[in-house]
Amino acid sequence: MQSKETKKWQDEEALKRYQMIAPLLDESLDEGKRRQLREEIAERYDVSKRSIYRYEGKYREGAFEGLRP
Description:
Order of helices and strands: HHH
Largest sheet: none
Mean pLDDT: 95
């Protein structure tokens, strides 16, 4: 069973990840713009582009729950 602190930490991390990828979830973006946006987000948050791709994929698979560590 998870402690409240662990669950709170997981929720906070998921929220941070969601805030990072939220602009990428706009379905009207073409792939070129989305790629450029991923690079900008990775640089802004000091994470790898691979992480951004992973977060985006996890969100598309499991919504917000998919972003929890």
